[in-house]
Amino acid sequence: MDNKPNVFRRELVDVHGVPLFWSMAEEWSQVESFEARSDDLLISTYPKSGTTWVSEILDLIYNNGDVEKCKRDAIYNRVPFMELIIPGIINGTEQLKNMQSPRLVKTHLPVQLLPSSFWKNDCKMIYVARNAKDVAVSYYYFYQMAKMHPEPGTWEEFLDKFMDGKVSFGSWYDHVKGWWEKKKDYRILYLFYEDMKEDPKCSLHKLLQFLEKDLPEETVDKILYHSSFNVMKKNPSANYTTMNTAEMDHSVSPFMRKGISGDWKNQFTVAQYEKFEEDYAKKMKGSTLQFRSEI
């Protein structure tokens, strides 16, 4: 127990060119050899792109809108974070091994690091992408409260790291583009956070269609209500307040902070915005991916 604090605030370690938590790097063989099942549903995102939100929606869909059933455990136990391994604290691959099918599996891995069993078994996958500026801001606050990350430094310093892909899970640009390209060949539903915010019902129907599932309209409305930001923020099984303060300190910044689109305007200076946009244009050149920075 005494040595627990030293698992936190350690430098990231390079795994095949992608910076990851040191403990993931040490146990990488467990992640790489993970056995997906053909009826697994993979939820993939770059961090801070609506992962918990879409996970809650999908757990509600899988349980036909039974809200009480979805309070059976914290979201990180209902939808295990596959590659998250912290000695003595959590092991996502082990959690999943012990789960009954059909499983909901969460990952933040870029496409090239995903265990090959997911491709081999042709698993259905849902990818959620959010605009880079909002992700950068949200990630900065998350780095402050979630202590598995290295110290974030100042906002200016963190933004530079983000643009250089020197943050946990690497480059946002490579991540969103990699999954975008992959959807041509695999069963991947690619959603945008901004669209989900603007028209949650339309996005929910897309999910249902992708899962080939029919739900009565009143169940759809119930799911929309219980997966709304304000309701989830108050729900201990969805808002991560059940985590130990040593791991996540909500007094620094709540896990569910604002959940809006366009918050970057409150954080970026004009100079930062101009530098970011110039860099963005270079890194996204040639991609057909289009993002909205506000709605």
From TrEMBL:
Q: EC number(s) of the enzyme?
A: 2.8.2.-
Q: Which family does it belong to?
A: Belongs to the sulfotransferase 1 family.
Query: Which Pfam families has this protein been placed in?
Result: Sulfotransfer_1 (PF00685)
Gene for this protein?
A: LOC102824543
Origin superkingdom: Eukaryota
- Protein name as it appears in the record: Sulfotransferase
Q: In this protein, which residues make up the domain named Sulfotransferase?
A: 39-287
Enzyme kind, highest EC tier: transferase
Coarse class of the primary localization is cytoplasm
Q: Where is the protein localized?
A: Cytoplasm
Q: Gene3D superfamilies recorded for this chain?
A: P-loop containing nucleotide triphosphate hydrolases
